[in-house]
Specification:
Elements (H helix, E strand, L loop, with lengths): L2 H15 L3 E5 L13 E8 L5 E8 L10 E5 L8 H8 L2 E3 L11 E3 L9 E6 L8 E2 L6 E2 H18 L8 E6 L2 H15 L10 E7 L5 H6 L1 H7 L5 H11 L11 H14 L27 H10 L2 H7 L18 E2 L6 H9 L3 E7 L7 H10 L4 E10 L2 E9 L3 E6 L10 H12 L5
Parallel strand pairs: 4-7, 4-10, 9-12, 10-11, 11-13, 13-16
Antiparallel strand pairs: 1-2, 2-3, 3-7, 3-8, 5-6, 14-15, 15-16
Helix pairs in contact: 3-4, 4-11, 7-8
Length: 437
């Protein structure tokens, strides 16, 4: 073999190793007929060796994909697949409400998809969530490590899709991604000033019921429970007196506070922590979900994603993962960001728009806690507390600050948009188009 042939062979090997893997999907098992939207799935290799393979779903906007905003959607956990967002919160497909019979679960079109006006990349991250995998044994990752990996993913994805490089770009997520999204916004912003990387047209971010500073948010659960009449006035006053606002990292010597917290737990143990009005029918993180439970679609999505015909249609690499799990709790992970408030502050200084919303029946991330850290940013109010309406009915309450941050509650909502997806979609559509809620 000549030197020229050897060189060409080496180039081909390198290109095949670092090849971009993206495929158009026109049909999905469980959905009748061709998909009524444009779907692409694929992998992007991360890090120098590209052993990390991030799997994504890209859905084009129904309206004007060439000009409409481009979003990246990140689910929480950490370890939840982005199919949770796609099927349960803001995507164009959902599972038909029926008992699983052993065949492929049925899919139907939704009325609330955010893809009506936005292009969305749904990303499975970190490795071990959804269909993302590693060619080598999975090592421990962290908040800060994932921020850099997602930024790298975006740069590589946009190089492969240059037609979207000028679209307004937003980072979106909920729950635990409240720790990732603000730091990622900062990382993208700083990366735009570094030589030789294609700039990302970053405009802002959206977060639903975000974890921001878990210790503070945990301590807001007791005031929230009192406001929802889940505990008595007397118990609440005693908790305030003896615990002094610290309810979940109690000094062992403060036995009175510990006993009062036990009383609180007795009152709330059987409450659905993600939505106080919904029966605590099953643990959504286990497989023991009965068909009459609101979380039964979690069982359907696992049946669907573990079907071989589905994996083939999605172009999932055969043998890359074993069983697909909606929420993988076994990923080696270090939560090394204590608070995302400093990142919100930094993003405010740079003038990025943001929408922070809270389902007002979520105990895990109480809306009062979210309002507290927003107030701590110390920006003046430009549009004071008022109801926002859908069809002449109150859908929640909202307030806007001078740092371009809008806070909104979703009346009757829970921990994620899945509890009231139509209302949440209306809120998003108004905000992303620059209209007042």
């Amino acid at each position: 073999m000549s030197l020229t042939q050897k060189f060409l062979f080496l180039v081909l090997v390198l290109l095949s190793r670092h090849a971009y893997s993206g495929s158009i999907v026109k049909f999905l098992p469980g959905f009748e007929g061709p998909l009524p939207f444009e779907l692409e799935t694929g992998y992007i290799g991360i890090d120098e060796e590209e052993n990390v393979q991030f799997f994504y779903y890209f859905i084009k906007s129904d309206k004007n994909p060439k000009e409409d905003p481009l979003l990246i959607w990140l689910n929480g956990g950490p370890g939840c697949s982005c199919l949770s967002g796609l099927f349960f919160e803001n995507g164009p497909l959902a599972f038909k409400s029926e008992v699983y019979n052993g065949s492929v679960p049925s899919l139907v079109s939704t009325t609330y998809s955010w893809t009506k006006t936005a292009n969305i990349i749904f990303l499975d991250q970190p490795v071990g969530s959804g269909f993302s995998y590693s060619r080598t044994p999975i090592g421990k990752t962290s908040d800060t490590h994932e921020v850099k990996r997602i930024h790298e993913f975006l740069q590589k994805w946009l190089r492969k899709h240059p037609q979207f490089s000028s679209n307004p770009f937003y980072v979106v997520g909920d729950s635990y991604s409240g720790m990732i999204v603000p730091a990622l916004v900062q990382e993208i912003s700083k990366g735009n000033y570094i030589c030789c990387n294609p700039p990302i047209n970053l405009q802002g971010y959206v977060l639903g019921n975000p974890i921001t500073h878990i210790e503070i948010e945990q301590n807001y659960r007791i005031p929230f429970a009192h406001a929802m009449s889940l505990i008595s006035d007397e118990l609440y006053e005693s908790l305030k007196r003896f615990c002094k606002g610290n309810y979940f990292n109690v000094d062992p010597r403060n036995t009175k506070c510990s006993k009062l917290v036990e009383e609180y737990n007795k009152c709330t143990d059987k409450i659905n922590m993600h939505h106080t009005l919904i029966p605590d029918c099953d643990d959504p993180n286990t497989r023991n979900i009965s068909p009459d439970c609101c979380y039964y679609p979690y069982h359907l999505v696992e049946c669907w994603a573990n079907n071989e015909s589905v994996r083939k249609a999605l172009h999932v690499k055969k043998g890359s993962i074993g069983e697909w799990i909606r929420d993988n709790p076994n990923i080696p992970y270090n939560s090394d960001l204590k608070s995302s408030v400093p990142y919100h502050m930094d993003n405010s200084i740079y003038g990025y728009r943001s929408l922070i919303f809270s389902g007002d029946h979520d105990i895990t991330m109480p809306s009062q806690a979210t309002q507290a850290w927003i107030k701590s940013l110390n920006y003046s109010i430009v549009d004071d507390w008022r109801p926002w309406m859908i069809n002449h009915q109150i859908a929640g309450y909202t307030r806007t600050y001078s740092n371009k941050m809008t806070f909104a509650t979703v009346k009757g909502g829970g921990h994620t948009a899945e509890y009231l997806p139509n209302e949440t979609s209306t809120m998003f559509q108004r905000w992303i188009s620059g209209q007042p809620l």
